[in-house]
Design brief:
The complex is a heterodimer of chains A (about 425) and B (about 900). Chain A is mainly beta. Among the domains of chain A are: about 90 residues, no CATH class; about 120 residues, no CATH class. Chain A is built from four helices and 25 strands. In chain A, the strands form four sheets. Chain A has a 16-stranded mixed β-sheet that branches. Chain A has a three-stranded antiparallel β-sheet with strand order 11-12-18, with no helix packed on it. A three-stranded antiparallel β-sheet of chain A has the order 22-24-23. The N and C termini of chain A lie far apart (about 75 Å). Chain B has about 900 residues and is mostly beta strands. Chain B has a 22-stranded antiparallel beta barrel. The longest helix of chain B has 20 residues. Classes of the chains: A mainly beta (about 425), B mainly beta (about 900). Chains A and B meet through α1, β1 and α2 of A and α6, β50, β51, β55 and β56 of B. β1 of chain A pairs antiparallel with β56 of chain B, so a sheet runs across the interface.
């Protein structure tokens, strides 16, 4: 019987390998279209309102381009005009503080530096709503079983608010597992590190405790439209794995709830659907999503991406620790312990098994000698300290203990600050 | 006596009308009779038919001034045995009093089966075809209008009488069968008659019998097992020129064996796509796009029952066992009034004719599939049974392979067909067909997609008399598919979809007269759809079950049509169908505010309907008009107008990899689609209709064509109408086809230029696509060229090749990225603004016939072919995935390398 398989298998092999070959291809922009992208959410908070203008960029590209030097203003049916100016990050900020008020139509007016004008449709402030409750909970079952979820409740039975979009900003505290009061400086460097001296000096910076802050990067929406009552109950804003280091020390999340009108809700939803990972049963028709910003010149076929949303907003911040949700402390995400293979009788030299935590001997500088060869620990010491931001832990000449920044310098993490935020409550 | 002479004069003067009006001057100097005739042919607009050897070598010198042809010929043949008849721009010479009682011995061994259409010929041409039989003594004083022709049919090799041979006389629409001694007798009108023969296992013949009086025609027919010259695409000889309807394609499976195949399958529907006007969106897409129509606009019938998914492996093999298929007629333009419910075309697939005579079979063994078709009489001449089975062994082999990447894949299909034919008596015939097909394969490593078709068809034919016939048809079709997902997470699910339809149909034929032939009837069809059930798979799964409301609908129609032959040149086919559709409960329907986008915020009311309560009724008259005007017997022009209404829609995701298309009925919010097609065509046959050339043009307008909003999700959507857009469609094109049916080199070359456009215009920006302008549909492929050629090297070896070129289909392509709401998004172009690269493919095949020994048990041949010889990587789709905020592009193609195949076919 085996013979017949062998006879058939070349055909089959070809057949099944080629029946449906899906391969990744290079993304090439065939016909790039330079389109203005408008992200503008006017809120009912009294503040300097913001409008972000950017441009589309090449598929192969990685960074967005800011639309500079545009003239941006918001006018309303009360006859007020609010002008905007660009700040250092390229975002347009209103010159004065103001807030959106109910029953007034607002319109965004943009004139780009190339002289093109764009207007939004007139939009009114959405009904007010509030976040009634925001609380973490260890979920027991479902796809998110054994995960910590931050839930939101909002009762809107007395308002017409039905469509909601959420943003959150989360901050967590981190404490380095190893920390020294001292820092190592390299002096008298000869020949790019062949020889050098290490001076131990007091640490000047707080590298032990930091606060890492990140904003949500996905579109989070919900609606009460198909519910019997207008109550958002236990809507999950954020889901965190039990062993996520976010929860190791202390965690805080601030959720902003934007009440949207149906059109704005739908706009964000389609944008989100189009970019979401598609499962077998949910693939959607791609295409250009029409927003509410249009070129003033009606004959222009120029497209505009984006939406001018006038939303009532409410926010709420909570803090919690791992023990508040009855889980054990998540482990530190990196292995920072010293590891060596002391039982290797063939090697007379200390053996570093964990690159995050090293004990290096300056006197071992590599080179010949009887086997085994001498490791170049001096070279490593130089390289880690000078180029890889390793931190000094302890030791004097010639043996030093150093640690990777992931284990000893909290400022090395992205979005990390060693200054406690104003809102922080321990 | 006087009366008959008067009658004769009257008749003759009509015949002479053309010739008499034309007077010519001509002179001959020492010319042979043949030369003279050629000269006369040039001078006049007449065609002369004769055989060279009738004339002696006598040379003539003479001249005529301003004389009629009749005068010249009378003078010329005054002293010879030659008679002539001037008739319809033809001059038919006969060496009178020759009556062929028997055909020449080599009659059926000629390779060409020439055919001389009605009124076209009564001639022996210079070549070796001797295909006109004269019956009765020719007499200018024709008295009778009808004569009795009888005869006996014997088998060529054995000399045994052939029983049950069907003789068809198209001129009078008569069908007779030979008795057990092979004898027949039939009354025919005087003049040229055609007798077509039909019996399974025998070659089909077409005889031209020139009847001058009562007489006998004896002839022999050959078994078809030895027939090596089966034609490829059979247009039933000049039928393309003669019939009134425009845009019909007939494919006869018998001729398909020489065409290069992939993986050893001869595929009737694949062949169809090499003909102009019939396209697929790409390899791996199951539907057909006929003349700019969506894939859901084709009524695909297998023995009168709808087959919803006519293919296996996502379109790679047709779902019908090639050996069980007899023929397929594809109506692209003039759809007969008896058919309805789809806008663009009808694929009328008939299973093989039964074999009442003896046990016979056909089969093939290929690398992926094996198939066999067996036919056996249960009661000789009364009951016959046909069984066809086809299956892949791929799954079984896959599991046995050591290859890790293939081991967990699943890919299998099979189909079974069972047919029962019963000739109850001369006036009653019964046919029952059952069919089942099943496909199962992995789309991704963690999911299995399966679908199946099941259908049953019962048909009873009854003749009331020679003129009045009835057909009663009852059919049931079901299509189901399901997806089983077993992924790494606990979100395993089962998804099911099902559509079922039951139809009752009555077809009546009334051959009123030569001028009027009526068909009329009525049909009613019940649809039942389960649009989607989602259930959790396994105990772990956290998928929430979801079940959409069932849909129900009743579609009924009455129709009448008349083939009205005004005169020999002008033929009308006038049809009218009136169809009516009711969407029925139990169901709920959303009522939306008018003139605002249909969405959850514009629902004003949710209506609930009880079981069988009418939700909405649609209907309308569908005109099916066509006409033919013959310029000459081998040249005609035709025109048609066709209106169709479709109440059932396919929701098909344009970009999808997974075949999750669902059918949906019209309801409160979804209107039926409508199409109006105008077409014209010119048809010309050359070389005794061996070479057919046609040029057709069409313009089609469609209303309420379904499309989707940006971001539409079609599966398990309870308010699907919120995602649907209905717009206008427009399609036009020209189609050119040249087809050579016989000879060592045969095949066809087709080219079409066509456009298929959609317009989704609305005042609401969200409900309009591409600014409300016309844009190309997904299947718009303007240039489409295909060539299918066979070359017979010897009787044993033949070579074949296919070449296909098509413009790449349109896609919506990302044209940039942007940041929005904190993550990277893709900016898409206008809908279908770009095209994937052009498609082309060359396949070659080589056929080796088995031994031709007559007494051999089975006839066999080998087919060796290579699919996609050029190894062209034809992309089927290009799609984009946003992973962790970054966009990636993927291209999927099918068979991007040459695929060789060897298959063994046999027949007994």
């Amino acid at each position: 019987m085996k013979i017949s398989f062998k006879y058939f298998s070349p055909f089959l092999f070809v057949f099944f390998l080629c029946f449906n070959c899906t391969e990744e291809i290079a993304l090439e922009t065939e016909a790039f279209e330079d389109v203005l992208v408008v992200e503008a959410t006017l809120t009912n908070e009294l503040k300097h309102q913001e409008v972000k203008l950017s441009k589309t960029y090449f598929l192969e590209g990685n960074s967005e381009t800011i639309e500079n030097n545009a003239i941006v203003s918001i006018v309303n049916t009360l006859g007020e005009t609010y002008n905007f100016s660009q700040n250092g990050e390229g975002i347009y900020v209103s010159n004065s503080t103001f807030e959106a008020v109910p029953n007034t139509n607002y319109k965004l007016i943009i004139k780009t530096s190339d002289g093109k004008e764009y207007n939004s449709l007139e939009t009114q402030l959405t009904p007010l709503s509030q976040i009634d409750e925001l609380y973490p909970e260890l979920t027991q079952e479902g796809p998110n079983a054994n995960k910590i979820q931050v839930f939101l409740n909002s009762n809107n039975e007395t308002t017409n608010a039905q469509y909601f979009r959420y943003e959150y900003i989360e901050t967590h505290k981190i404490i380095m597992p190893y920390y020294s009061e001292f820092d190592a400086e390299l002096i008298n460097i000869v020949n790019g590190g062949q020889e050098f001296d290490i001076v131990v000096v007091p640490q000047t910076e707080n590298k032990q405790t930091c606060y890492i802050t990140n904003a949500s990067t996905n579109i989070i929406q919900t609606s009460t439209n198909d519910l019997n009552n207008n109550i958002i109950n236990k809507f999950a804003i954020r889901t965190i794995d039990q062993d996520d280091a976010l929860l190791r020390e202390r965690y805080s999340i601030k959720v902003k709830q934007y009440v949207q009108n149906f059109e704005a809700y739908q706009y964000y939803k389609i944008i989100n659907d189009l970019s979401a990972d598609e499962s077998l049963l949910s693939e959607s028709q791609p295409g250009f999503v029409v927003g509410n910003v249009k070129p003033v010149d009606a004959s222009s076929s120029k497209r505009v991406i984006g939406y001018f949303d006038v939303s009532s907003v409410s926010s709420r911040r909570i803090f919690f620790n791992f023990n508040d949700v009855n889980i054990s402390q998540p482990p530190y995400p990196y292995n920072c312990e010293y590891e060596t293979n002391t039982f290797n009788p063939t090697s007379p030299y200390p053996f570093n098994n964990n690159e995050n935590h090293l004990i290096l001997d300056y006197t071992l500088a590599g080179g010949g000698g009887p086997p085994p060869p001498v490791p170049n620990q001096r070279g490593l010491l130089y390289n880690y300290l000078a180029n890889k931001n390793y931190q000094y832990l302890e030791g004097d000449f010639p043996i030093y203990t150093i640690l990777s920044p992931a284990c000893s310098d909290c400022t090395s993490f992205s979005s990390s600050s060693n200054i406690q935020p104003d809102f922080w409550e321990d | 006596m006087k009366k008959t002479i008067l009658l004769y004069i009257a008749l003759f003067s009509i015949y002479m009308l053309n010739a008499q009006s034309e007077k010519i001057s001509v002179s001959f100097s020492n010319n042979s009779t043949v030369e003279i005739l050629e000269k006369l042919e040039q001078k006049s607009n007449l065609r002369f038919y004769y055989q060279d050897n009738w004339f002696d070598t006598y040379k003539t010198t003479n001249s005529y001034e301003n004389k009629t042809i009749e005068f010249i010929l009378s003078d010329l043949f005054s002293s010879s045995s030659i008679n002539f008849l001037i008739y319809d721009n033809k001059v038919i010479l006969t060496n009178n009093s020759i009556v062929y009682q028997e055909l020449p011995d080599d009659f059926f061994k000629t390779e060409e089966q020439s055919y001389y259409p009605e009124n076209d010929a009564i001639f022996y041409n210079q070549y070796n075809s001797k295909n006109v039989i004269t019956v009765g003594k020719q007499n200018v004083n024709l008295k009778a209008q009808e004569f009795r022709v009888s005869g006996r049919v014997t088998e060529e090799n054995t000399g045994k009488p052939v029983e049950g041979l069907v003789l068809i006389l198209p001129k009078t629409n008569k069908q007779i069968t030979t008795d057990k001694n092979g004898r027949f007798s039939v009354t025919v009108p005087s003049g040229l008659n055609t007798i077509e023969t039909k019996l399974l296992g025998y070659q089909e013949q077409s005889l031209n019998v020139l009847v001058y009086g009562n007489g006998t025609v004896n002839f022999k027919i050959a078994e078809s097992a030895e027939a090596l010259d089966e034609v490829l695409i059979e247009s039933t000889r000049n039928q393309n020129v003669k019939e009134a309807i425009v845009g019909i394609t007939r494919i006869d499976i018998a001729g398909l064996k020489n065409i290069p195949v992939v993986l050893g399958e001869r595929d009737i529907l694949k062949i169809a796509t090499t003909l102009p006007g019939i396209k697929t969106a790409g390899e791996g897409s199951a539907g057909f796009n006929v003349r700019g129509g969506r894939a859901d606009q084709n009524l695909i019938l297998l023995d009168d029952a709808v087959i919803y998914s006519p293919s296996h492996f996502l379109g790679f093999f047709s779902a019908i066992n090639p050996f069980a298929t007899g023929s397929v007629d594809i109506y692209k333009a003039s759809i007969p009034a008896e058919y309805g419910g789809r806008l663009s075309s009808v694929f009328d697939i008939k299973t093989k004719e039964p074999n009442y005579e003896k046990f016979s079979g056909e089969g093939s063994i290929g690398p992926i599939t094996g198939s066999v078709n067996l036919q056996t009489p249960i009661v000789k001449d009364k009951i016959s049974l046909t069984t066809a089975v086809r299956a892949t062994y791929s799954d079984w082999i896959l599991r046995s392979l050591d290859e890790e990447s293939l081991k967990n894949s699943e890919a299998s299909f099979y189909d079974v067909l069972l047919k029962y034919d019963h000739k109850i008596n001369e006036n009653n015939k019964f046919q029952a067909t059952g069919y089942y097909s099943k496909d199962k394969f992995s789309i991704t490593s963690d999911s299995i997609f399966g679908y199946n078709n099941a259908l049953a068809s019962l048909k009873w034919d009854h003749s009331f008399n020679d003129k009045h016939k009835a057909e009663v048809i009852a059919v049931n079709s079901q299509y189901k598919y399901g997806i089983e997902y077993e992924g790494p997470s606990n979100s395993n699910f089962d998804f099911d979809y099902k559509i079922n339809e039951t139809q009752l149909k009555l077809n009546m034929k009334y051959l009123h007269s030569d001028k009027h032939k009526f068909t009329y009837g009525a049909s009613t069809k019940l649809y039942q759809i389960e649009p989607g059930n989602l259930s959790a798979k396994g105990n772990e799964s956290i998928i929430e079950p979801k079940q959409l409301n069932k849909e129900k609908g009743l579609e009924s129609a009455v129709y009448i049509s008349d083939k009205f032959e005004v005169n020999k040149k002008l033929l009308f086919d006038i049809g009218l169908r009136y169809s009516i559709f009711s969407a029925l409960g139990a169901n709920t329907q959303n009522v939306y505010e008018a003139n605002v986008p249909k969405n959850e915020s514009s629902i004003t009311e949710v209506k609930t309907y009880s079981n069988n309560e009418t939700i909405e009724t649609y209907g309308g008259a569908e005109f099916r008009l066509s006409m033919r005007y013959s310029l000459t017997p081998s040249l005609s022009v035709k025109g048609s107008f066709n209106k169709t209404i479709q109440y059932l829609h396919l929701l098909s995701n344009n970009t999808t990899m997974s075949p999750t298309d669902t059918w949906k009925l019209s309801d409160l919010n979804t209107k039926p689609q409508e199409a109006y097609q105008y077409s014209v065509g010119v048809y010309k046959n050359f070389d005794n209709s061996d070479l057919e050339v046609s040029l057709e043009g069409y313009y089609k307008k469609m209303n309420n064509i379904l499309d989707y909003k940006v971001g539409a999700e079609l599966i398990l959507n309870e308010s699907i109408e919120q995602e649907l857009l209905q717009g206008e469609g427009k399609a036009y094109g020209v189609e050119f086809l040249i087809k050579k049916k016989n000879g060592n080199l045969n095949g066809w070359i087709g080219y079409s230029y066509s456009k298929a456009l959609l317009k989704l215009q609305n005042d609401i920006p969200q409900e309009q696509v591409n600014n409300g302008d016309y844009f190309p549909a997904n299947y718009d492929k303007p240039h489409d060229f295909s060539m299918v050629l066979n070359y017979k090297l010897t009787k044993k070896y033949s070579f074949s090749a296919n070449f296909i070129y098509q413009t790449g289909r349109p896609i919506t392509y990302p044209i940039g990225k942007f940041n929005f709401a904190g993550s990277e998004q893709v900016l898409y172009s206008d809908r279908n603004q770009f095209r994937i690269p052009d498609y082309y493919r060359l396949d070659v095949g080589f056929n080796i016939e088995g031994s031709h020994k007559l007494k051999k048990l089975a006839h066999s041949f080998w087919n060796i072919s290579v699919y996609n010889v050029l190894g062209r990587n034809n992309p089927y789709s290009v799609f984009f995935v946003n992973n962790d905020g970054k966009v990636k592009a993927y291209q999927s193609s099918i068979f991007s390398i040459p695929v060789p195949t060897v298959s063994y076919n046999f027949k007994f």
